[in-house]
Specification:
The chain is of the alpha+beta class. The protein folds into three domains: about 110 residues, no CATH class; about 90 residues, no CATH class; about 230 residues, no CATH class. The chain is built from 15 helices and eleven strands. The strands form three sheets. Strands 3-7-6-5-4 form a five-stranded antiparallel β-sheet. The protein has a four-stranded antiparallel β-sheet with strand order 2-10-9-8. A two-stranded antiparallel sheet has the order 1-11. Helix 9 packs antiparallel against helix 10. The longest helix is centred in the last third of the chain and has 45 residues.
């Protein structure tokens, strides 16, 4: 005989037969129900911690206060403007780097002869900007070549480009590549026809010819399949599997088709360069202003902001100490926490140990940054009791707590804030036992 435990959830008990109002009243009732469920769940936590529910007639606000205390961590007043300064620096770097990366990506699709003069400067500039970003986000020491000469050189080369000539060169190259495709197809067709192709292969050749002709006329239907697909079918055809010339001429045709498609993609390059003629100079001015006027200040701000982040990370260690010892580690925190894992790294940006002092509704941790100014930083941990606000927003009366056996059960009742002050109640989840 086996017993099975089935958990039956009893959320809300409506006491009385009051009529219900409209949507507004229903919203009030639902809010009260939700709060009662939260109280029920908190009482379950209380029982786990204390072995039983609170005694009969207990003031829930007092016994459940620790469960409704929320800690809010505040930074010192000097941190927000410094954070904004760091963020502004990062945004400037990202803005410039975004333009450079866009240019870099486009160069990979350009003819190598066009891209080659730019790439060394683009790579050097991208590396420098990445390093400048790490100065602000990771406090890394940046040792790279100066980026301004590189972006200035890129700008000079771009401004010298004759867009009309560039467009003419692209069209000329497309015609050359199209002629290569026609020639490669003729070689492939001659090779295939030399082996007496059947009707299936002839149809495939016709499809390839149709595609080649479309490319030659520079008029590609949207629904046209790539000729490469039909070339592959012929190469893999059982009749030609071991025919080396079919594979070689087929691969040459596919290569010519790829080169033509690649050349056709260059048609938007003049418009792209026209846009870069405008954006690169703006990026140069933006970067120049950052380097000459803002970079040093942003790096100093980043050190303080990073130290503040480290100070915030000490809070979990303080919480753990309080949980284990029942009190806060007041005074020099290194006395109580220096043995904690990661303490040296957390405090490496401080000039001396952080200090904790209790306040009426929380505590403050202060430290000084290890910079020439020995900037003071702090976190203020404010304890806010949510019970009073929660109850005032949920109920018009109550909650009232009752129990006949605090080891087993309880009943909590309260009235919602609807027009009829509906009486609601809740008790623990019920466990039924069934036999199998």
């Amino acid at each position: 005989m086996k017993r099975i435990l089935i958990l039956v959830t009893v959320f809300i008990i409506f006491a009385g037969c009051e009529a219900k109002g409209g949507f507004r009243d229903q919203a009030y009732i639902m809010k009260a129900e939700k709060t009662l469920v939260r109280i029920r769940n908190t009482l379950q936590e209380y029982k786990l911690d204390h072995g039983a529910y609170p005694g009969n007639g207990t003031d829930l606000g007092k016994v459940l206060e620790p469960y409704f205390v929320k800690e809010i961590v505040h930074d010192g007043d000097n941190i927000p403007p410094l954070s904004m300064e760091v963020m502004s620096g990062v945004n400037t770097i990202d803005q410039v780097q975004g333009v450079i990366l866009e240019f870099k990506k486009r160069l990979f699709y350009a003819e190598s002869s066009f891209a080659a003069p730019y790439l060394p400067h683009v790579f050097a500039l991208d590396s420098a900007l990445s390093c400048y970003r790490l100065e602000l986000t990771k406090l890394e020491d940046c040792r790279v070549s100066a980026p301004l000469p590189h972006i200035a050189k890129i700008d000079t080369m771009i401004q010298q480009i004759d867009l009309e000539k560039l467009a003419e060169d692209i069209e000329r190259n497309i015609k050359v590549k199209a002629a290569d495709v026609v020639s490669a197809f003729q070689s492939f067709r001659e090779a295939v026809e030399g082996f007496n192709p059947d009707e299936e292969v002839q149809n495939l050749l016709a499809e390839i010819e149709k595609g080649v002709e479309a490319y030659r006329k520079d008029s590609i239907p949207e629904d046209m399949k790539d000729p490469d697909e039909f070339v592959d079918k012929i190469i893999k055809h059982k009749k030609f599997k071991k025919k080396k010339i079919i594979k070689e001429t087929g691969e040459e045709l596919k290569h010519a088709l790829v080169a033509l498609r690649y050349a056709r993609k260059q048609r938007d390059l003049p418009d792209f360069i026209k846009d870069m003629k405008r954006r690169i100079p703006k990026s140069f001015e933006l970067l120049k202003e950052y380097i000459e006027k803002k970079r040093d200040s942003a790096k100093r701000a980043a050190l303080v902001v990073m130290a503040q982040e480290r100070l915030r990370k000490i809070k979990p260690l303080i919480d753990l100490y309080k949980k284990e010892n029942g009190t806060l580690p007041t005074g020099d925190l290194s006395v109580a926490l220096s043995s904690c894992k990661g303490w040296e790294e957390l405090t490496s940006l401080f000039a001396g140990a952080p200090v904790l002092e209790e306040t009426e509704n929380g505590y403050i941790v202060r430290a000084r940054v290890n910079n020439p100014e020995k900037t003071e930083i702090m976190i203020w941990v404010e304890r806010v009791n949510e019970w009073d606000k929660l109850i005032s927003e949920s109920f018009s009366w109550g909650p009232v707590y009752e129990t006949i056996d605090s080891t087993r059960t309880f009943f909590v009742k309260a009235r919602a804030q609807d027009s009829y002050h509906t009486l609601l109640g809740i008790r623990p989840q019920i466990v039924k036992k069934e036999e199998e």
